[in-house]
Please model this.
Amino acid sequence: MSGVELRGDAQRAPSRVPPSVACGLALALAGPALLAIGCERLPAGLSAVAKSLIGQVGMWTLLAAILAIARLWERRPLASLGLRPLRISSLVSGLVAAAILVYAVVPLATALVSATGLPAFEGGLARVLALPVWMRTVAVVTGGLVEEVLFRGYAITRLEDVTGSSVVAAILSVLVFAASHSPLWGPGPVLSFVLSGGFLATWFLWRRDLVANIVAHVLVDAIGLVFALPVR
Model:
């Protein structure tokens, strides 16, 4: 679906949260941060690759749980998450979104972090780039796909149902999305993730096409983390 589709309080009143949705929101919003914290506390004797692999398996487990909740407990189609068959329009939309992120959103976010005087991406980036290329590729694909399903596809759509407002749903999901990156990247980059997450949330609300969001997310992360080009 194209075109902005926003819900306001005048259109739909907040409703009681079904147990299935409450469980799904808890997993989608809190799961990635708890997983990141847990990976940071793994035994020091484990290699960085092993820790990263554990994190990726955990993310895919969260994805499987969210999809199972949506399909088997909520009894709703995957289209309710914005997941539809792959279309050329989804690829084009994803490429356009990636270009806007690379040439507008990320430079603005980088300037904002620099203006605060907080540490930028260097610390976290050094840790990620120390991993082999194949591991970084796995991490980029996993992060782009799973985070979009959790924070955009599930969190925004279900928070819309709960709050009756697309704006509130987007703001809540973006803030949690940004905060979930703090264990690896630190407080400075969290500000950057607020902007990039806000853009991706807006793009999702406009297009209602999660595949496009996934394409954009994976491409931008691949440029910075796999090919190590100066995106951030």
In short: Residues 133-163 form the longest helix (31 residues). Residues 19-226 form one domain. The CA atoms of residues 103 and 171 lie 23 Å apart.
